[in-house]
Write a structure and sequence with these properties.
Shape: flat
Largest sheet: 2 strands, antiparallel
Structural class: little secondary structure
Distance between the termini: 13 Å
Radius of gyration: 16 Å
Number of strands: 2
Order of helices and strands: EE
Strand order of the largest sheet: 1-2
Helix content: under 10%
Strand content: 5-15%
């Protein structure tokens, strides 16, 4: 399956081991979702402020492929 990214997450953490386990207690633990063209327009997020939660599907792009695991 191929997934085309519509954006990327930016955070102050460069490595996974630097992310706090209880990020709600760390004010600096804030990330931003940056949408790419053509999704970075107001119409793409119209009404989002009226929603309490969103689902973010992501891929671990730095994980090396292990061809032996592919059926």
């Amino acid at each position: 399956m191929e997934i085309e990214p519509i954006g990327f997450i930016e955070s102050p953490y460069q490595e996974k081991f630097g992310v706090p386990r209880q990020s709600g207690l760390v004010p600096e633990a804030e990330g931003v979702i940056r949408l790419v063209k053509p999704w970075n327009c107001p119409e793409a997020i119209r009404g989002i402020v009226e929603i309490s939660n969103i689902w973010v599907t992501f891929g671990f792009h730095l994980v090396p492929k292990d061809e032996s695991l592919i059926p």
